[in-house]
């Protein structure tokens, strides 16, 4: 079972909230229903437009734009898993409105960075000085692609090449990207080298502490907190929560529990809802379900109300270490207490039912998710597609795949294609290999880079089954798409 980390269960840690607020990217208010409907209409128009020419697309879009400032962002997010079309929409938008909102430009920049298309990226960065959010996305993409030095160079060139201020906020976002890609040693060296230019604040130290915890070096994380205190800064509750999660992450369950008890005894860092959720999640994954449930019950008695994220943690660990039936009881309990499950909650239960072999019940719960007004996302579909493929029900998996592209309203991502292509080799049928080949073509055209092993496996399968024409098409993809040149045959 793929586990959801506490960070995802919370979706919005205090650290991330502070960074976002500082980078002028506040929590978005829910979009108006009319804007969502119009965004869906525009997205469908972009996907069905026969030409890649931005001018003809702009003509087709002009009756629908402008509507609201948030509309372009909504469209780009709906088209996120078809990056070439999304960028085509952005180019058309430039013809209609030469100065798009900075948030829209930041999203387009992130898409270009994801495609690793340096030509498009350079063009977007030259439109106007990029926002801090755009640079934050660049740092994350470069480090995710294994290019941490490129992320550092992007930061160092902010003022000289792009006219953007090299603030401590931007520096912290660089450190955050490095630490999340397990390069805390490099991040720590940068902090020491640039200390006079960017004196560390609480966020800086918390990012470094989290980075050490990610590579299971909690002793270094504790040293970082000590350094924070020695510098005259007071650790926040988030500082302690980082250490708490670090202990669980490294398997130091006893240390984590003792640390949690010490937090309860100290007046300046009493556990909050994030602390309790972390403990429930950590204990549950360690197999201590009863103890996790006891912490859940005690937090309510101590006046700390659980959040939806807390219930999600409990549902996840019960699905993983207990039974899905007990997880469903927790789901019903949260409904009775007035909590509104989110897409994470539903996906956890759907995954639990799939792992229990209850595929039909999983499909029923998927429908319940829709009926309850929670839109299934790409993860929802991926869970079901993966398990239908593992059950040998290829047609049901492909049916869901077609549904998500149509009335499902969400485009397949890299994981979707990987699951389907891998599944097509289970039955060892020539027609399944043909489907796999078409999937590779489609995913590349949508801006996704297949793994080298998978690309070669499909290519060899096509050659062995006599599908030379499609095999030649796959080879031709390397000539058409720059980002595919990284695959060596």
TrEMBL record:
InterPro entries: PPR_rpt (IPR002885), TPR-like_helical_dom_sf (IPR011990). PROSITE patterns: PPR. PPR repeats lie at residues 201-235, 236-270, 272-306, 307-341, 342-376, 377-411, 413-450. Keywords: Repeat. Pfam families: PPR_2. The keyword Endoplasmic reticulum does not apply. Gene3D superfamilies: Tetratricopeptide repeat domain. The keyword Repeat applies. Belongs to the PPR family. P subfamily. This is Pentatricopeptide repeat-containing protein. It comes from Dioscorea zingiberensis.
């Amino acid at each position: 079972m793929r586990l959801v980390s506490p960070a995802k269960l919370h979706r919005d840690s205090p650290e991330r909230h502070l960074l976002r607020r500082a980078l002028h990217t506040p929590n978005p208010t829910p979009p108006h229903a009319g804007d969502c409907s119009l965004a869906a209409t525009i997205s469908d128009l972009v996907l069905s437009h026969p030409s890649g020419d931005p001018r003809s697309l702009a003509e087709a879009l002009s009756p629908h734009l402008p509507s609201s400032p948030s509309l372009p962002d909504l469209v780009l997010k709906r088209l996120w898993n078809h990056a070439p079309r999304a960028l085509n929409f952005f180019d058309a938008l430039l013809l209609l409105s030469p100065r798009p909102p900075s948030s829209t430009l930041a999203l387009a920049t992130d898409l270009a960075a994801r495609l690793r298309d340096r030509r498009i990226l350079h063009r977007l960065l030259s439109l106007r000085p990029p926002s801090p959010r755009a640079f934050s996305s660049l740092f994350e993409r470069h480090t995710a692609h294994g290019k941490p030095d490129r992320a550092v160079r992007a930061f160092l060139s902010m003022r000289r090449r792009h006219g953007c201020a090299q603030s401590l906020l931007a520096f912290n976002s660089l450190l955050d990207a490095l630490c999340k890609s397990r390069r805390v040693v490099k991040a720590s060296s940068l902090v020491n080298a640039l200390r006079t230019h960017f004196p560390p604040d609480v966020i800086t130290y918390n990012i470094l502490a989290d980075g050490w915890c990610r590579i299971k070096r909690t002793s270094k994380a504790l040293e970082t907190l000590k350094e924070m205190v020695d510098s005259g800064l007071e650790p926040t509750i988030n500082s302690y929560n980082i250490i708490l999660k670090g202990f669980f992450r490294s398997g130091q369950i006893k240390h984590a529990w003792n640390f949690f008890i010490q937090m309860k005894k100290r007046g300046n860092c009493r556990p909050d809802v994030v602390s309790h959720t972390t403990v429930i999640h950590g204990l549950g994954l360690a197999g201590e379900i009863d103890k996790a449930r006891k912490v859940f019950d005690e937090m309510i008695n101590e006046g700390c109300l659980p959040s939806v994220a807390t219930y999600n943690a409990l549902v996840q660990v019960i699905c993983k270490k207990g039974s899905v039936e007990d997880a469903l009881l927790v789901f019903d309990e949260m409904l009775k207490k007035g909590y509104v499950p989110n897409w994470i909650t539903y996906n956890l239960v759907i995954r639990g039912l799939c792992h229990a072999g209850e595929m039909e019940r999983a499909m029923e719960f998927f429908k319940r998710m829709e009926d309850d007004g929670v839109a299934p996302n790409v993860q929802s579909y991926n869970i079901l597609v993966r398990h239908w493929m593992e059950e040998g029900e290829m047609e049901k998996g492909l049916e869901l795949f077609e549904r998500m592209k149509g009335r499902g309203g969400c485009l397949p991502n890299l994981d979707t294609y990987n699951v389907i292509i891998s599944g097509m080799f289970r039955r060892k049928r020539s027609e399944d290999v043909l489907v796999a080949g078409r999937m590779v073509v489609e995913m590349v055209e949508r801006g996704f880079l297949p793994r080298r092993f998978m690309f070669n496996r499909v290519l060899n399968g096509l050659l062995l089954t006599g599908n030379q024409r499609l095999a030649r098409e796959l080879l031709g993809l390397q000539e058409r798409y720059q980002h595919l040149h990284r695959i060596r045959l």
